[in-house]
Design goal:
The structure holds two protein chains of two kinds. Chain A contains ten helices and 17 strands. Chain A is α/β, with parallel strands linked by helices. Chain A has two domains: 251 residues, FAD/NAD(P)-binding domain, CATH 3.50.50.60; 120 residues, Rossmann fold (3-Layer(aba) Sandwich). The longest helix of chain A is centred in the C-terminal third of the chain and has 18 residues. The two termini of chain A are 23 Å apart. In chain B, a hairpin with an 8-residue loop joins strand 16 and strand 17. Helices cover 35% and strands 23% of the residues of chain B. Chain B has three domains: 154 residues, FAD/NAD(P)-binding domain (3-Layer(bba) Sandwich); 178 residues, D-Amino Acid Oxidase, Chain A, domain 2 (2-Layer Sandwich); 112 residues, no CATH class. The longest helix of chain B has 19 residues. Chain B is globular, with a radius of gyration of 23 Å. By secondary structure, chain B is of the alpha+beta class. In chain B, the strands form five sheets. In chain B, strands 6, 7, 8, 15, 16, 17, 18, 19 and 20 form a nine-stranded mixed β-sheet that branches. In chain B, strands 10-3-2-14-22-21 form a six-stranded mixed β-sheet, sandwiched between helices. Chain B has a four-stranded mixed β-sheet with strand order 1-13-12-11, with no helix packed on it. Classes of the chains: A alpha/beta, B alpha+beta. Chains A and B meet through strand 5 and helix 4 of A and helix 7, helix 13, helix 14 and helix 15 of B.
Chain lengths: 398, 499
């Protein structure tokens, strides 16, 4: 038995866990979030994909197979979760553009269009067709961005290179946070005398103040500016994570970092505490309710073994998409890999099916049948299920 | 049109060895390879420089050849052979009788073989299964097959040998019943080159029956597929063999930062249509795991198959077919060299070139066993200190390959293939298997205007599809996590279309 009794403990600091946590904290519950490390959100584009199967994402959701966890929440809940998210991001100074009524594009680092729904304001001006003239700014030595991938596809695009003596996106973003660097850069940019209507940057325009930096460049150059998401480490992903995390803490939530769960304390139907190794004896945290938002494979919620797939915290029953041979399709690009369906099957209140526990709720990427890449529902599904799980928990605690 | 004396088809170890031998004997020659060097069985093997122990019971003649060549290669290729030593470990239940025959035969042939206790064996290789009965120590070594090919080619290039990689022979030109030349298509531009010569040597391994057919000739071949897995790190510093008649998964070879384990043996028909199966991967892992238990939980980064070109035999089990080789004189100016092993490539080259010298009625003897391989200093691996010197501009984080190194290879070879860069630098050979660095390498290639960005998009798709074939059957644990991340990068972030 631990010393501290929480109402809710959330496992995982990704979009789903932090969303559920913020709502519960705002409703007055005592919430602690434990995390092994940073979430996969940090690796993401920072964009919120709701469902890319249709131009109208909510319409797209209705095309999803019956087992998809989106069907456990109503359209109204999806809308509410998006509204809630947008409000909190405004409060954190990292506003998002877009609405769940229609999808939009961001320009990828290969010059293709990535379908998404909500984008950080730094990507709001991304072209939606082939028409816009673009001028791309890149940085000498930056290893994760090659503008010629884009200029090859877009006839009306050109680029210039700035020497910022940093070769990583993180290094550049840190530079952009410095006023003197930004000033020097802006005067260089002005001298370029760019004729094109829009200026594109790899997503390195700062870490905390990206929205303001983008705005500042727009005002000085008097043209539209947008960022292009890069491969990890991704600044927009990290900004999203920071904003969600800070929001949760600002509302009174507590986060224990580097807190890998090594065991659970339980009675017949109830999980009482989770424990982590520490010097001397294990530490434990008690709660009335546990929310599992530990992500899929990359996040570390699931582990694939040679012959099966296991859930790492509570050893919940996992939906395994057949034998290992069926986990992947032979065509890499088919997006029809069985593994995308692996995860935890839950009931209508997000409790794991066929498990003994009545105080465990599951949300986000660890849910079964999500097929996140195929359906283009990354982060959107996490927001909606995180939001819905918070409601289920409140119902249970009452 | 190019005129030369000898045309070599095939850039595996045998073809490259023949080029070196001809160069040292002063015979003008031209080597044509449809892919990169070591693209066939040479590059798809363990990289084991056999002591001969593996064949000492079943095929003493091949074993003797292996041991003699092992000594020669250690001498001439000091910098490209890793003198690991090898153990044949006997597990509980493995026949003691086989061990006795093994030792007797080693003694007869002259292969040094020393029995050591399991305690001593575990001192040498701490990861070994503590239950082993005993081990026999033999002079097995590991060798980098790609580097070996390159080193042989250097000797040829220094003496005006003409080398065409990425050129596929599409036609063998015959006049009055004799082979007088070949037409080869540049695999990039499609351009046809005509090369004339007096002798054509077919050193195309598993494809030799197909190349011989172009001239209306036949090569009796049995193709046997062998599969291997690569671990994320080195689990042993010595070659580990199982003390029993050849079977699946009985060899583990340390090579640079990784270990290779295999093999399997399955008869196949078409060398271009082979695929690995997850069952093979499981078999190799559990068999290798009997010798080194840690194999069962170690990260496998890739699995691959190669095709052994064996001399045709009535034997049903391809393991029983001799690893010996044979030169076929087709009587029309074409010679095919078939069979053999990576370990005996130099000897195969020597015998082939002897045949050519007889044809030309020239006397100069072979010197390949006496002169050390040229260029070893530059090609002797890529020391860590050198790799770490340019940390800021690392393009491949797994294998620490810098941007400057990638640019150097692009400049040197003018290559349009990421694979050529990988072979020469180890780019993309680490745990992420090129997931991050290929996007970068192709970006650099079109920055240098070697390829158009359209070509790089195709290359990216092609690379991912190919990469996937190598890792598909090793996807669990951390390798599956890595794969999911890479898939997210290309599909989720970069929105790469299927085409």
């Amino acid at each position: 038995m631990g010393l501290i009794q929480h109402d809710v403990i959330i496992i995982g600091a990704g979009v789903a866990g932090l969303t559920a946590g913020s709502i519960l904290v705002e409703k007055g519950y005592n919430v602690a979030l434990i995390a092994k490390g940073e979430p996969t959100a940090c690796l993401s584009t920072g964009c919120i994909d709701i469902c890319s199967l249709d131009h109208d994402p909510l319409h797209g959701v209705s095309h999803l197979p019956d087992e998809h966890p989106y069907h456990l929440v109503s359209r109204a809940v999806i809308r509410e979760s998006i509204e809630k998210f947008k409000e909190s991001m405004v409060q954190m100074g990292f506003p998002y553009t877009g609405s769940p009524e229609s999808n939009r594009y961001v320009l990828s680092a290969l010059g293709t269009f990535k379908t998404t729904c909500l984008v950080p304001s730094t990507m709001a001006a991304a072209p939606q067709d082939e028409k816009d003239d673009l001028h791309i700014i890149t940085f000498s030595g930056l290893k994760d961005f090659y503008p010629s991938y884009i200029t090859a596809r877009r006839k009306n695009a050109s680029f210039s290179t700035y020497d910022a003596s940093a070769s990583t996106t993180m290094g550049l973003a840190t530079n952009f946070e410095r006023e003197d660097f930004l000033e020097k850069f802006l005067s260089w940019l002005e001298k370029l005398n760019i004729q094109e209507g829009k200026i594109a940057f790899p997503a390195v325009l700062g870490l905390e103040s990206a929205a303001t930096i983008t705005q500042k460049i727009e005002e000085r150059l008097r043209c539209k500016v947008f960022e292009i998401p890069t491969i990890p480490p991704s600044m927009p992903g990290r900004r999203l994570f920071n904003a969600l995390k800070d929001y949760f803490r600002k509302k009174g939530g507590m986060i224990y970092w580097s807190w890998p769960v090594s065991g659970v304390e339980k009675t017949k139907k109830i999980i009482e505490a989770v424990t982590t190794p520490s010097e001397g004896r294990p530490k434990s945290l008690n709660a009335k309710v546990f929310i599992l938002a530990s992500g899929s494979f990359v996040g570390g919620g699931l582990t694939a073994r040679r012959d099966t797939i296991v859930e790492n915290i509570f050893n919940l029953p996992v939906f395994v998409p057949g034998q290992r041979d069926n986990w992947f399709d032979s065509d890499y690009f088919s997006l029809n890999h069985g593994i995308g369906k692996a995860g935890i099957i839950v009931d209508s209140s997000f409790r794991p099916k066929e498990a003994d526990w009545e105080n465990v709720f599951v949300c986000g990427g660890i849910l079964a049948h999500t097929d996140v890449l195929k359906n283009g529902c990354g982060h959107g599904m996490a927001l909606a299920t995180g939001y819905a799980v918070a409601a289920s928990c409140m119902g249970y605690i009452k | 049109m190019i005129k030369t004396d000898v045309i070599i088809i095939g850039g595996g170890a045998t073809g490259c060895g023949i080029a070196r031998d001809l160069a040292l004997r002063g015979i003008p020659h031209c080597l044509i390879e449809k892919g990169d060097f070591a693209a066939g069985a040479t590059g798809a093997c363990h990289g084991l420089l056999h002591s001969g122990g593996r064949y000492v019971v079943s095929d003493p003649h091949s074993a003797k050849e292996c041991y003699d060549e092992n000594i020669i290669l250690r001498r001439i290729g000091e910098k490209c052979v890793e003198q690991t030593g090898g153990l044949f470990v006997r597990l509980p239940g493995d026949s003691k009788l086989y061990r006795d025959r093994f030792l007797k035969s080693c003694e007869k042939i002259g292969i040094p073989a020393e029995i050591i206790s399991s305690t001593k064996a575990l001192d040498l290789v701490p990861n070994l299964n503590p239950d082993i009965e005993e081990a026999v120590k033999v002079p097995d070594c590991s060798i980098d097959p790609f580097r070996l090919c390159m080193l042989n080619i250097i000797s040829s290039q220094k003496r005006d040998g003409i080398i065409f990689t990425r050129h596929k022979v599409t036609e063998i030109i015959k006049e009055h019943g004799r082979c007088v030349g070949v037409k080869a298509a540049d695999q990039v531009s499609g351009e046809l080159r005509e090369i004339h010569g007096n002798v054509i040597i077919n050193a195309t391994g598993a494809w030799s029956h197909l190349v011989a057919q172009l001239a209306g000739n036949e090569v009796p071949l049995t193709l046997s597929k062998g599969s291997l897995v690569i671990t994320n790190h080195r689990l042993t510093n010595m070659v580990i063999n199982r003390m029993r008649p050849s079977a699946d998964g009985d060899i583990i070879v340390p090579n640079e930062a990784v270990c290779l384990a295999g093999t399997t043996s399955l008869a196949v028909e078409d060398p271009d249509k082979i695929r690995i199966e997850s069952q093979e991967v499981d078999t190799i892992i559990s068999e290798a795991g009997r010798m080194i238990p840690h194999f069962n939980d170690t990260r496998i980064i890739r699995a691959f198959s190669g095709v052994r070109p064996l001399l045709k035999s009535a034997k049903a089990d391809s393991r029983e077919i001799t690893r010996g080789f044979q030169i076929f004189n087709h009587g029309d100016g074409m010679y095919s060299i078939v069979g053999g092993k990576l370990t005996t490539f130099r000897l195969m080259a020597e015998k082939t070139v002897d045949t050519v010298m007889d044809y030309f009625k020239l006397k100069k003897p072979c010197e390949t066993a006496d002169i050390p391989l040229e260029g070893q200093e530059e090609l002797s691996g890529y020391p860590l200190a050198k790799r770490l010197a340019d940390m800021k501009n690392i393009v491949c984080e797994c294998e620490l390959v810098s941007r400057a190194e990638v640019e150097r290879i692009i400049k040197q070879t003018g290559t349009r293939y990421v694979g050529d860069i990988s072979h020469r630098t180890r780019l993309g050979m680490g745990p992420c298997q090129g997931g991050f660095c290929t996007f970068r390498a192709l970006g650099i290639m079109h920055e240098k205007s070697i390829i158009s960005p359209e070509q790089s998009m195709n290359a990216l798709r092609d690379f991912l599809q190919r990469r996937f074939r190598g890792i598909r059957f090793c996807l669990w644990g951390d390798q599956l996590r890595e794969e999911q991340l890479v898939e997210y990068i290309y599909m989720g972030i970069l929105a790469l279309e299927k085409k």
